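Issue: ligand-bound run for iron/sulfur cluster - logging full I/O for the record.

Environment: standard queue, default settings, no custom constraints.

Inputs:
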Amino acid sequence: MLQFYEPARDYGTPKKASTQSVSLLIDGQSVTVPAGTSVMRAAFEAGVKVPRLCATDSLDAFGSCRVCLVEIEGMKGYPASCTTPVQPGMVVRTQTDSLARLRRNVMELYISDHPLDCLTCPANGDCELQDTAAELGLREVRYGFAGANHLGAAKDTSNPYFTFDASRCIVCSRCVRACEETQGTFALTIQGRGFDSVVSAGQGEAFMASECVSCGACVKACPTATLTENSIIEHGKPEHSVVTTCAYCGVGCAFRAEVKGSTVVRMTPEKEGRANEGHACVKGRFAFGYATHRDRIARPMIRDSIDEPWRIVSWEEAIGHTARRFREIQQQHGRNSIGAISSSRCTNEEVYLVQKLVRAGFGNNNIDTCARVCHSPTGYGLKTTLGESAGTQAFASVAHSDVVLVMGANPTEAHPVFASRLKRRLRQGARLIVIDPRVIELVDAPHIRADYHLAVRPGANVAVLNAMAHVIVSEGLQDKAFIAARCDQAQFAHWLEFIRDPRHAPEAVEASTAVPAQQLREAARLYATGGNAAIYYGLGVTEHSQGSTAVMGIANLAMLTGNIGREGVGVNPLRGQNNVQGSCDMGSFPHELPGYRHLSDAATRGLFEREWGVSLDPEPGMRIPNMFDAAIDGDFRGLYCQGEDVAQSDPNTQHIQAALGALDCLVVQDLFLNETAKFAHVFLPGASFLEKNGTFTNAERRISPVRKVMPPLAGKEDWEVTQDLANALGCPMNYSHPSQIMDEIARLTPSFRGVSYARLDQLGSLQWPCNERAPEGTPTMHVDQFVRGKGFFALTEFIPTQERANRRFPLLLTTGRILSQYNVGAQTRRTANSTWHPEDVLEIHPHDAQERGVAEGDWVGIQSRVGNTVLRARISERVRPGVVYTTFHHPLSGANVITTDNSDWATNCPEYKVTAVQVSRVTEPSAWQARQQQFDRRQQQLLDTATPG
Ligand code: SF4
Ligand code: SF4
Ligand code: SF4
Ligand code: FES
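Outputs:
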């Protein structure tokens, strides 16, 4: 079921929202539009297209090209229709002989300074200059090409994804405005004046040397071939397109995958996509080449031990072998000796099938998902306080926020398209509080400066949140009416007594949090009294031993100030991977069936038992860390791991490697021989998001379609492989399309009752709950009452982590992400994105570096209580003294060799964000890195020598 949509129309100038309407006449036709609308847009609505070059409806009108001139009765001259707002009773003419002459004259000037090589130009047929010249009937150019011109201007090919060919530039400034208004980076300017005006990145730098973050907004906005994707230059124009959803982060941007033959030649962000509204970042926009990378494994393989070469086998043999091995293990070691890990990178339908396979086919509940190691505390914390394990708003809601609190999240790196929305609102005047150990970009970005940056010591989030609540309560800033109407009164009274205690005062926690009390007080007052206040948080909140407590502390703050249940407010987890929300929704946790319903509930179990024709084990299964511990103990012997690279992403790598090495049968379904697959006995080739149908659910609960753009390289979509395995295990599944899996999910899950592929095709995307009560979905949750009824103020006692700095390990390591790389890097490392981040480095404050004699670029050993690794040092004041920081995108960096087994008390989410370490100069890789390199080489050899068999 391929979907082809016409690209959205361009109305020339942005839509205006006004309660007042204005009626006018355009070329004799009456049209009524909201006040503030431009004459150009009003004309378009009346079916009249006024020629234009510098206008596009994603950017504010600029009025530079003078092609869109019109005549307006009572007005002198020829006003530009893009910058002229409509007035009641206006009479506009867009097509007269004098206008045609004027417009042609302007076009002649442009064309006389433009290469006339349309036939060989990469934008031929997709160029607004060419179209407008044709529209105006331009046949000849009177001015000739002999005079001064820009035809010899140099190309900038520094960016790996697009080329800037200055000779084709008409200086319409759309690129500059896109970089400012859409992306918010301000990397481009127009330098010089008049004829000498040129577009310039930075101060006359190459794009790669400038502040440019390669989002591609300027490329999309450019009406000529001046800024063109290199893939289009190489392959030519696309022939058709399919609308789908980005497979990287939890923003869930909609894209038009543009295809020539069976090659994707461009990913264009979809204007109608509700999560991104036509914007993108460097990952979704450009980093799709991994799907056809030579490292892809396209045939199933098996081996008896990880010291043997792989044998390439048929799908039938691989599936039959896996089923046989799993049954043998269960016969020998019991029903609970096998399990599965599903991935937040896979579709809803895929993760639903994996949990069904485990519960109905394996006969146990040993299913867990990688959300365990990122946002499981969000699920627990928000369910406990508000009653639903999900964020409360749509991304667009931030346009109504007056105060934004960003905590433990770095949106410009990890959720860039949401960051652009946020930055737009901040430039409009919303206030900003950042709570983060590190100076993230938002603290001081172009035209943005955080009002407060609370540089909390890693591990002290709960103390900061409690102190903020303490200030609000002790200064009487809470929303009493909201609390009285919406929250559990007895529990609130209990909590009030708890939070009033002087031990939560900012002054009392100043030493443990490292946040100056006065700053904290002022930030709390701003959050409570600054108007609509919204909280956005990320893994810097959840990945702690008190992750769940911090999430509850955040929900408490929102309830306390009445900042929940309308636009512009709320509690918003920024999810790392594309389908973290969906994988949790789909019942991937060992204690919950789809829709967050506990296994112990007999009625829910009965529902699934009837649908699946089995009886279900009411006992929760093993979580990921339990599976690994049990593997080392010898009780857990078989694992089906779909799309998740636990050997790189999970903490305490050496422990994970030992567990994987102890398994009798490890089955990995993935695109590449990732770190986990190096320990596997069965490799089932996976399909990239371009090769399958399904849905992803983003951080705002938005279910968006993933549509097949090209055939699966290995012949099967991932859900088909799970289905084959289920059938081989005697657990019948008989779907012929993932839409049928979604129909089953909708039948069994109240919050998904109204979701179907037909509805998604019709509406583009849907935010759950979507059911009889909300047939078009739910952008804002908890509007009149909380899902749990009354809001619950959980007690959030601050208990410092066991992981403390001391003389032996005096620094605290915290981790995060970088824009160009994604998670374990398996995809982005196989694209030109590595140009920006070829290795992980250790950020260290100049003071700590100096104490250790460490200079920029030195190799440094990082020793924790569980292991050590070696990285290059980057001296940076983004981290405070006593804190060091790294990313985890490259396997050999071994960031997780040093992270510990500490985890969240409620959910076991690992404490990635706090590891006590010592740092010292070294001259060679760590022992683990040396061993790992050897192991990698051996595994690559075994792959290279794989034989048919
Ligand atoms: S690069 Fe493109 S968008 Fe920018 S000024 Fe030139 S023609 Fe306009
Ligand atoms: S790619 Fe994005 S960041 Fe770079 S110049 Fe263009 S709009 Fe600005
Ligand atoms: S990585 Fe995230 S922000 Fe970037 S295009 Fe994909 S979904 Fe959008
Ligand atoms: S489109 Fe109106 S001046 Fe350029």
